[in-house]
Design brief:
Blueprint: E1 4-7, E2 10-12, E3 18-24, E4 33-39, E5 46-51, E6 58-60, E7 68-73, E8 78-83, E9 92-99, E10 112-115, E11 119-123
Parallel strand pairs: 2-11
Antiparallel strand pairs: 1-3, 3-8, 4-5, 4-9, 5-6, 7-8, 9-10, 9-11
Amino acid sequence: QVQLVESGGGSVQAGGSLRLSCDASKYTFNKHCMAWFRQATGKEREGVAAIHRGGGVVAYADSAKGRFTISRDNTRNSVTLQMDRLKDGDTAVYYCAAGQPRVFRRLYADQYAYWGQGTQVTVS
């Protein structure tokens, strides 16, 4: 069974940076695309960034372009999201997800089968 565990959330002032990490169970990691989603209070879950199995192809939501960087290390079964120049609007619970999406660049949550428990990011 796929297990995803996020870490690295916390509170930061606007303009600051945070780095989120997600560790995945070994047997499945390099078979799946990995992505980060977020859900703010009272809002729907939205895609932030995704990275293809080999790490060579990435996709970002418009809100993340130029500020966030997704990367993966298939030798360590981990994916990270470096978030810079954070804004108030980035406050949300961030989720790591694994899947085999049919439309990779659209960041559709329903195309990801496995999810972590989430980590809170608060920007003030």
